[in-house]
Amino acid sequence: MRKYRTVLAAGAVTVAALAGTLASAPTAAAATSLCGSSYDYVGKHALTKVSGRSGPRTGGYVYVYYSTKTKKNCAITKPVPELRGKAWGLGVGLHSPTYRDGESDGYARGQVYTRWAGPVYVKSPHACITVTGDLNMGTPGHLRAHYEVLKQGVHCD
Question: Which of 18, 71, 72, 133 would suit a FRET pair with 141, their CA atoms being 20 to 30 Å apart?
Answer without folding.
Answer: 133
